Amino acid sequence: MRPAILNSLFADARTLQGVGPKLEKLIAKAVGRAPEAPRLVDLVFHLPSGIIDRSYRPTLVAAEPGRIATVAVNVLSHHAPPRGRRLPYKVLCSDDTAALEVVFFNAHEDHVRRSLPIGSKRTLSGKIEAYGGRKQMAHPDYIVAADETAGVPGVEPVYRTTESLPARGLGRAVARAMERLPVLPGWQDAALVARQHWPDFVGALRAAHAPQSEVDLLPLTNARTRLAYDELLANQLALTLIRTHMRERAGRALQGSGRLRHKALAALPFKLTDAQTKVIAEIEADMAQPSRMLRLLQGDVGSGKTVVAMMALLIAVEAGCQGAIMAPTEILARQHMAALSAMADAAGVRIALLTGRERGPARAATLAALEKGEVDILVGTHALFSEDVRFRDLALAVVDEQHRFGVHQRMKLQGKGNKPADVLVMTATPIPRTLQLTAYGDMDVSRLTGKLPGRRPVETRVLQAVRLDEVITALKRALGKGARAYWVCPLVDESQKVDLAAVVERAAMLKKVFGSKVGLMHGGMKGPERDTAIEKFRNGETTILVATTVIEVGVDVPEASIMVVEHAERFGLAQLHQLRGRVGRGAARSTCLLLYQPPLTETAKERLAALRRTDDGFVIAEDDLRLRGAGELLGVRQSGLPEFRFADLSVHAGLLAMARDDARLILQRDPELKSPRGEALRTLLYLFERNEAVRYLRTG
Question: pTM for the full model?
Answer without folding.
Answer: 0.70
